[in-house]
Structures are given as structure tokens and as C-alpha cells.
Specification:
The protein is an all-alpha fold. The protein contains eleven helices and no strands. It binds fe (ii) ion (FE2) (2 copies). One fe (ii) ion binds near residues 63, 67, 122 and 140.
Amino acid sequence: MNDYEYPLNMTGGHTRTQLLALMHQRLDDARFDHCVRVEQTSRELAAQYGVDVDQAGLAGLLHDYAKQVAPADFERVIKVQGLGTELLQYNRGVWHGMVGVWFLQAETGVSDPAVLQAIRRHTTGDPEMTKLDMVVFLADFIEPARELDVEKKARHVAKKSLTAACLVELQSTLSFLVSKGARIHPLTLATYNALVARKTK
Ligand SMILES: [Fe+2]
Ligand SMILES: [Fe+2]
């Protein structure tokens, strides 16, 4: 197991071991293992791109905390918390980022705003994505168990450019959604446009 620890003021007072135990209550083993790999990849990308390694690692570790929350529980929180019923047009793939932070805050006390933002944005992206947000967004796509050609391509591009690697991911995600005839969240399209503009600056 890794030997690093996070500042307790970022973790709701929990040690990393305690956070892992909380995650095990919410996630099956495969999803849990993915989160630990995303944590490690986030830390590596953060070091490479001058981002706070602890914020990136913690956001990477917790990014899918609510991935397996039951849809009915998400819908209840969306309605009760007034998070906007337009969200209900989408699904758990979107909710576990945007609404997932509510579960994370309620159940772990993690409160670091930048960490929560990176988790909130990891499903849809955001046109205002910070480098930290991009690190977590990308780490989710290129953690070591990802082996599709497009994932390998993004991993390769990430050696040189965080923005270009995120664009590889977005192109893949958008193409996939279109091919399935699925809805595209407006933030994802806006993110794509914003990153294309950033890249060509
Ligand atoms: Fe996710
Ligand atoms: Fe993930």
C-alpha cells in the first residue's frame, strides 16, 4: 500500500486508511481499485504539470466515491437539494460527479473546494477547467489499467500537453456518445470548444 498521507484539514479529519474504509462501503472492489490507480496517476500528472500533488491525489482517490449510489438516491438528492431538474435528463454517469460531491461531503466531511470542484467536473468537464481539474479528468482516462488505443494515445500525448491529452479524451467521449445516440451534456460540448480554443492560442 502507498505510504503517503493527506493533510487532515483536506480530508475531514480522516487518515487515508480511514478514507479507504469509507470508500469500501460505497464501492465494489473493481471500482475501488480503479480509484486507487486514478489517485496514483493524478499524483504523477500533478507533479509533472506543477499542480498540488495532495489535492490531485485526494480528488483522484475520491472521484468515483458516489459512482455506485443507487439512481433513486441520486434523484432524491437532486430534488431535495434543488440541484436542477434538467440534471434528471442525464444519468448516473453524469450525476456521480455533479451530485456525487454531496454524498462525499455528507459522508466523509471532505471540504477542500478545489478537490470538490475537480470531482464535480470529472464527468462532464467544464470550460473553465483548472489544471487540477484537468489532471483528475485525464487520470481517470489514462490510469494504468486503461488499454484502449485511444487511451494509450492520450497517455502518450500527456507526456507533452495536458490540454491536448484532455482533448483526445473529449473527442473519444463525444464520438462514443454520438455513436450511441446518447444525450451530450452541454458542459461537455462547451469544454471541448474551450480546450480547442486554448490549444490553438
Ligand atoms: Fe467517474
Ligand atoms: Fe473513474
